[in-house]
Write a structure and sequence with these properties.
The chain is mainly alpha-helical. The protein has a domain at 2-144. Helices cover 88% and strands 0% of the residues. It has helices spanning 2-47, 52-60, 62-80, 87-104, 110-146, 150-169, 174-194, 198-229. α4 (87-104) packs antiparallel against α5. The longest helix is centred in the N-terminal third of the chain and has 46 residues, at 2-47. 19% of the residues are buried.
């Protein structure tokens, strides 16, 4: 019984670790993309052109930065066992993330480092926004009661949850489709490279990496969840 309980505890820990790491990897990817788009718009505003080599150089740094942020989360979760990190936790994680990025990736050109450091600031804004959204429901219910629409809002919320559960049950094949799409894009990327279409190959490679990562992580999380339920 003890070993079974320990095994279940480890599964729960691994499930939460993978889920948290994938969520934070997605946040990092979004922040990096926004920072890149902002820098690209700034350069185009100054010079009306954005070099292809700079684009590839910046995007080549994304996987490493994403892995660093996800790793920082995993280390924090392993030490604290907190399901949801607080403001101080995220301040510490962002500081560690910025330190690791600037230490481990110092060999990249200045524009790349500018985008990476900009993404740290954007990540902080995203996390602050998510924290704010998490705190809104109680206040929304107070406002709903004041407006006398609380029963209607409760019914809508219940229907939304039911729809979400139904959607989750009907999307069991999504991870496999993501992996298949990522594999197809890798093949397409090879064709683009053979045709000397570097820009198109870069786009295909970036999207393929994201699809494959998402598919694999979703498969792992679903597998662990199913085992835990068994």
């Amino acid at each position: 019984m003890g070993s079974a309980g320990l095994s279940l505890e480890k599964r729960s820990f691994l499930k939460q670790s993978l889920w948290g790491a994938s969520c934070h990897a997605l946040i990092a990817w979004g922040a990096l993309s926004l920072s890149y788009c902002a820098y690209k718009a700034y350069v185009r505003w100054l010079t009306s052109a954005f070099p292809a080599w700079l684009k590839l150089e910046i995007k080549s740094s994304f996987p490493s930065a994403i892995v660093i942020f996800a790793s920082v989360y995993l280390i924090h979760y392993a030490k604290t066992q907190k399901r949801y990190a607080g403001e101080r936790d995220y301040a510490l994680m962002l500081s560690a993330y910025a330190l690791c990025v600037n230490t481990l990736m110092f060999s990249y050109p200045a524009p790349v480092m500018l985008v990476l450091n900009g993404s740290v600031i954007i990540t902080a804004f995203i996390l602050a926004l998510l924290s704010l959204v998490k705190r809104l429901p109680p206040y929304l219910m107070v406002i709903a009661e004041w407006l006398k629409i609380a029963p209607w809002l409760t019914r809508i919320t219940s229907e939304a949850r039911t729809a979400a559960h139904s959607f989750s049950a009907n999307t069991a094949r999504i991870p496999s489709r993501l992996i298949a799409a990522g594999t197809g894009l890798i093949i397409l990327c090879t064709i683009f490279m053979a045709a000397k279409q570097g820009t198109a190959a870069g786009h295909a490679a970036s999207l393929a990496w994201f699809l494959l990562l998402s598919g694999v992580l979703l498969k792992l999380i679903r597998s662990l969840r199913d085992r835990g339920e068994d």
